[in-house]
Amino acid sequence: MTTSAAFTLEQGAARLAAIVGAEHSIVRGETIVAAPAGVQQVAEVLRFANANGLTVMPTGSGTKLGWGNPVVPDIKLSMKRICQLRDHAWQDMTCTVEAGCSWAAMQAQLREHGQMVALDPLWPDRATIGGIVASNDSGALRLKYGGLRDLIIGMTVVLADGTVAKSGGKVVKNVAGYDIHKLMTGSFGTLGVIVEVNFRLHPAEEHSRTWTAVAPNGAGDAKLFAEPLRALMDSLMVPSSVQLRISRNEFALDVRIAGLAECLDEYGASLQTTLGDFPIVGWAQNVWSAREQMFDDEDSVVLKIAALPAEICSISAELYQWSFGDGRDVKVLAQATGLMTVAIEATPELVPALVERLRARVHEFGGSVVMLQIPDALRGKIDVWGPDQGSGALMNEVKRRFDPGRILNPGRFVGNI
Amino acid sequence: MLTASQIAGLRASVGEGGLITGPSQLQTYECDGLTNFRVMPEAVVLPRSAEQVQAVVRLCARYKIPFVSRGAGTGLSGGALPAAGGIVISLARMNRILNVDLANRQVVVEPGVINAHVTQRISAQGYFYAPDPSSQSVCTIGGNVAENSGGAHCLKYGFTVTHVLAIDVVLPSGELVQLGSPTLDTPGYDLPGVFVGSEGTLGVATKITLRIVKRPEVVQTLLAAFDSIHAAGQTVSDIIAARMLPSAMEIMDALAIQAAEAAVHAHYPVCKGLLLVELDGPRSEVDALMLAVQKLCRNNGAWEIRVAQSEQERAMVWKGRKAAFAAVGRISPNYIVQDGVIPRTALSHLLDQIDRLACAAGLRVANVFHAGDGNLHPLVLYDQAVSGQEEKALELSYRILRLCVDHGGSITGEHGVGKEKQEALGYMFSEPDLATMQLVRCAFDPENIANPDKVFPRPRLCAEKPGPYTPHPLETAGIAEIF
Questions:
Q1: Staple A136 to which of A162, A186, B29, B111, CB 3.0 to 4.6 Å?
Q2: pLDDT tens-digit profile of B66-81?
Q3: Which domain holds residue A34?
Q4: Fold held by B332-406
């Protein structure tokens, strides 16, 4: 509990119990875990926290709590009780879902009408809408459908002072007022608590196929993939997802195309023609879980690199070369959008130099390197977010306006916002 | 009134040839596409570089001179209406395409580049810039960024914000910052996401990095004639229910068809509801889906179905649709274009209500809409020469907007709030919603000098508490009025 607080942890929990119910306000270690039942309770909890200078960390299922700088909050605001799909206007292809709902639970209900939110985030069975939106997670479907910025059409948030605000709406086309929901997306809970999100929907990909191609003669050079990748992206095909998997054991290019069932064979033939002498060797759908597997070893450092699409092969090749030093291993999962996930096994002291080198490399074209998973030994030794790219002062001012008391996830985000 | 030294400062910032102060020349800038409001600016500057924009804005910041940035002035909500006592920053001379990067599917432009010129520059390589507002042959990318412009094809391809990666912005303090970057997911808040569509109230865009899209293998456009606009609307719902995502779906009613015919002779069938569906993508897929669309049209009673057989035919189909607003001038001396959005499923009900309201007001309403995304453009026809008719038309157009909100929709799908719909924004959003938006405004522009007195029902100073509405000085002076 913040030292300046006028009461003990137990007293604070009792005050919150009066808002959320005794069984939903529990002391765990140095933190009160409070689970409000609806937007008004979220607002009351935040008003209480703000008035008393208590810090708050909104949480879903906690799958990405390790991302960003560590925060030990006074109150963990669990959204697990606010978890319903409130509305599925399938004829309008929109839905409204509460922040605590798991991604998979939402998608299962949307599928009843053959629809989906066209995004494939990490750990969909556990990860919640709020956490996915707050961390702006996205997967391989982003190539065709865009990211959360393109899929979220409205939002209800609660600000630090308890103000309940809506932005956007339930229609896809809407330019009324500022898009506060875009500001909240990817803000890591530092500007407000996301309570409800409105999505635009797409038809579910009823028929799709995945093809995996490898380099001719098993050649192990990521740069060789640059030309077939360029040809594919410059072709008339419309893949949903394209990813490059590079490690000591595999050099593979995965392509997923959705469409009418009767067209898929034709797409496969066109793909082989486009890829030239890079043979298609497999059709396994499960390659799309490769990004999740990057996080399997908790001792690995996992990086998110945002690069220009045309650079992913050369950066992958550089990382591959680096992995041949003593005691190192690297796995690269690069999407054709330019977003790369990299898992590194190495002694901790080797990592900062590599990250700095990568940052210098991608800085040339405005890219970024964020450390998503980082062992405790490296915490505090390197900035997980990387340097200010020029708008840090403006971001700080936005934070100051939204959360002047700095109670929401203080220090977690870029530049210790 | 600007002082002589302030004028001199502006001249020093942009050079003699970049400053307009003569009343007859200033008149060009007194309004945009919404001509109901007119305010003469004190001066207009035409900078040629971000540095010149910075110099101008720094001067504005120093003396708290309001400024309004302007592209081609085609906006329909008064977003580029000058502020009283302020200056206009015209970006017309910053019109260079700075870089084309096909490998990364990006183009970097200055704000004064005309929308259609981006596609023209890259079409030979098989790419296009997707947002296509009807004014795309004259409107600028800077203006598109301000309004988050859409167009007929945003059903599939998204809006301007979908296609903006990075923006160089001169903040109202005069500082130049880059929001976003050419790569995705720049660490930090999505400031470009909130800047796009902020209608010039957060700063001046001086360089924009745009995403471009590969041109599809084939594009097929179908016209279907129905005996009622409801049947056309039902067909749209059926297409969606069949899990198709056409690149565009447009509906025009009898009056709009009549106007388009009079203006551009698009040879549309004479009917009560005309549906235009465009599909694009791989040939085999589009061929199969087009057959399915035709079947759905017939199921709903379409008595004539035409698929454009050539690029010329397709262009003619679109020419009629895109000319519809201006064409209404052929059948009515005056008209008001509205821009409401509703959930698609409310379409039939809303159209009935519009009919009733129009009958009660004794006015005609032509309907043109982006049916796929529920974006209506009711055109309220009237004759200014008839006493009291303009007031009735304005009232009708606002009642239509309120109906859109009542049906769970929005007061604007692509034209923006600007000056025209400030009060309607207050109908759509609650006071806490608007106060939250103002936090962003105050972070970017604490002195409220960038396009002040726009968008929000009543702009408040950043330290001010919410309060009741009070008339703006412009209203008091009789220069403009809120309606």
A1: A186
A2: 999 999 999 999 999 9
A3: 9-78
A4: Alpha-Beta Plaits (3.30.70)
